[in-house]
Design brief:
It is built from ten helices and no strands. The chain is an all-alpha fold and about 180 residues long.
Length: about 180
């Protein structure tokens, strides 16, 4: 279940906007209070997870992200949850799981620059630098549409393909 209540969404936004990244405990407590009122709400679970994540409590955050996804998140909030979940797994050194979450995000949201960026970061963390650079090159050519860069679009894409092929030849797993 995820909320469609505009008043609840406003309340969550106000808590988020008031957060102090240097002292997340008040934010965590505020989100936990909302969760008590709305147990099982995917958006609330996601916000609780995000507050723990920002506080540096990644292991705790993972459980809330998983519960949020199980509650039926969809659309942009699912995209953000998958991205943060994958990023948190990467931060914990769980690279295969990170790439699995971000591969799912890429499949669902292939045009999301933020998902592509964090996917590249997880590829790099997993020791797959060729694939990471290829992904970043493609992201740049897709998103930075300047005459200077577009002049070299074919070369950028060709080099990205070359690097991705090197990654595959090295036996790296995954669809990156």
């Amino acid at each position: 279940m995820t909320t469609s209540d505009p008043l609840l969404k406003l309340r969550l936004r106000e808590i988020f906007d008031a957060r102090d990244r240097e002292n997340m405990q008040p934010t965590i407590e505020a989100f936990l209070a909302v969760l008590k009122e709305h147990p099982g709400d995917g958006i609330v679970l996601y916000d609780v997870g995000g507050s723990y994540d920002t506080a540096g409590e990644e292991e705790t955050a993972l459980g809330y992200y998983e519960r949020a996804m199980d509650a039926g998140l969809e659309g942009d909030i699912l995209r953000r949850c998958l991205l943060q979940y994958g990023s948190t797994l990467r931060a914990l050194g769980r690279y295969d799981e990170s790439l699995e979450a971000l591969d799912r995000a890429l499949a669902l949201f292939p045009d999301s620059p933020s998902v592509r960026m964090w996917h590249a970061l997880s590829l790099h963390a997993a020791g797959r630098s060729d694939a990471a650079v290829a992904e970043l090159m493609e992201l740049a050519i897709d998103e930075v549409r300047t005459p200077d860069l577009l002049r070299y679009e074919a070369a950028v894409r060709g080099n990205a393909t070359y690097l991705r092929d090197l990654d595959r030849e090295s036996g790296a797993a995954g669809p990156a």
